[in-house]
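can u do me a favor
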């Protein structure tokens, strides 16, 4: 069997994943990854960008989305946490890998997305977000 059959390039991101999720959907992806990490003893990196709401025009929002999506792998997810924060979920990625990802994004940012300040968090280690209850276990 050809080993290249399963090789994917970063440009091979499926069309159905070429979207920035709304907060409700994105939080569900994050929670799913937390459950997976808890179950298998793994972890993931989470990169969060704070955006100045006063400067968030539709064209800037589009530039931010395009710039952030340019560096994603097919397994990564991107979405808004609220009206001022956009996050990127990096499954099976250490905090060091998340920091490398952040530096690379800063290098390739479009003009409308330059100047974003990102922070890298690691689950289960450095995780400042409040846990949401598992569905059916509230």
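np, heres the sequence
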């Amino acid at each position: 069997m050809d080993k290249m059959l399963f090789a994917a390039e970063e440009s091979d991101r499926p069309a159905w994943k070429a979207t920035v999720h709304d907060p409700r959907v994105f939080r569900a992806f994050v929670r799913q990854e937390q459950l997976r990490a808890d179950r298998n003893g793994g972890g993931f990196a989470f990169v969060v960008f704070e955006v100045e709401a006063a400067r968030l025009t539709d064209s800037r929002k589009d530039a931010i989305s395009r710039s952030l999506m340019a560096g994603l792998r097919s397994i990564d997810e991107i979405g808004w946490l609220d009206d001022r924060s956009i996050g990127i979920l990096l499954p099976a990625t250490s905090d060091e890998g998340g920091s490398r990802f952040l530096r690379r994004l800063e290098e390739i940012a479009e003009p409308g997305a330059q100047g974003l300040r990102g922070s890298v968090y690691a689950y289960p280690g450095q995780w400042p977000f409040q846990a949401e209850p598992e569905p059916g276990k509230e």
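The chain is about 30% helix and 20% strand. hope that helps!!
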